[in-house]
Amino acid sequence: MNTWELLLNLNQVCHFCSRERAGTKATNSELKRWCKNQVVRINGAVFKWDQEIPDVIESCTLFTKNKRVTLL
User: Fold this and answer.
1) What is the mean pLDDT of the chain?
2) What is the pLDDT of residue 68?
3) Exposed/middle/buried for residue 4 (C-beta within 10 Å: 0-12, 13-18, 19+)
4) Which of 12, 39, 52, 56 is at 20 to 30 A from 32, Cα to Cα?
5) What is the torsion angle, in degrees rounded to the nearest 10, for the CA atoms of residue 40, residue 55, residue 27 and residue 63?
6) For the chain, how long is the longest CA-to-CA vector?
7) Are 63 and 71 within 8 A, CB to CB?
8) 38 CB-side CA count, 13 A
9) Could you give the dihedral angle defined by the CA atoms of residues 42, 43, 47 and 52, in that order, rounded to the nearest 10 degrees?
10) Is the whole model's pTM more than 0.85, yes or no?
């Protein structure tokens, strides 16, 4: 599984809110942009959107450079 597939699977369960259009669910294109902009940190490391991620995930953080971050 890569970072892109992880976000797609999480979005089916968590329903990420769009950062581009207030009040709507994040689209698949938006999730892919998040991955390409490297806003996803898994186990403390940034992975490229198509790079394989570890089988064991201890932490997943989104938007670490902003004041508000999402921890999973």
Assistant:
1) 84
2) 57
3) buried
4) 56
5) -10
6) 33
7) no
8) 6
9) -90
10) no
> Which residues, including other chains, have CB under 8 Å from residue 54's CB and lie 6 or more apart?
42, 43
Q: Which two tokens stand for residue 22?
A: 């207030």
β-strand partners of 62: 40, 70
Tell me if 11 sits within 8 A of 33, measured CB to CB: no
Cα separation of 71 and 63, whole Å? 9
Alpha carbon distance 70, 14 (integer Å): 11
Orientation angle between helical segments 28-36 and 3-14, nearest 10 degrees: 140
- Residues written for the chain: 72
Task: State the pairing for strand pair 70-71/45-46.
Answer: unpaired
The structure tokens 């953080």 sit at: 61
